[in-house]
Heme exporter protein B
Amino acid sequence: MMRAFLAVVARDLRLAGRIGGSGALSLVFFLMIVALVPFGLGPDLNLLARIGPGILWIAAVLATLIGLDRLFQADEEDGSLDLLVGAPAPLELVVLAKVAAHWLGTGLPLALATPLFGLLVALSPTAMAATGLTLLVGTPALTFIGAVGAALTASIRRGGLILAVVVLPLMIPTLIFGVSAADAALGGTVPFGTPLMILAALSLVAAVVGTLAAAAALRWGE
């Protein structure tokens, strides 16, 4: 089972690197949002620093949607999805591997780039580190939630808009606790560990429920 899991992860990462995966596009989109918001808010550095974690989290949520519609659709189009569904390995394991590979190529780079992009919204080093940690813990939840929508729209051409409409409301709790954790690190009334643990729990629940729901959606689509 572990060999099958690693083989699917390696395959998806290799394909993403060969054809130019969504990771670079997500980073560029993330940078564009973070860079444009200060122009709209003006030169008030105190305001930017206060709402900076929220800006980074909203940008990360929107950037996560980049390429999600191709998570299963590309395999559906070339016929490999049928082979994956009929493989000896459980479909849930295959889905988990594909989502893990997608997060490694998109969510992880977003979290690692947060301290650098935090300079654009005048974040302090503490705020940069806290926001980066919350994104590292919370982006798996966004990816697994998005995987459910990707599985539902796998057979729909240009289903990106439908995917966004379906999954964005489900991402709101992760966004709320992610921003709450980042704000708590800057001296909020709630200890930093409390919303961070809730955020970690959301990622774990999303990993289990999202994997099962995405696998069921793929079976239903067949």
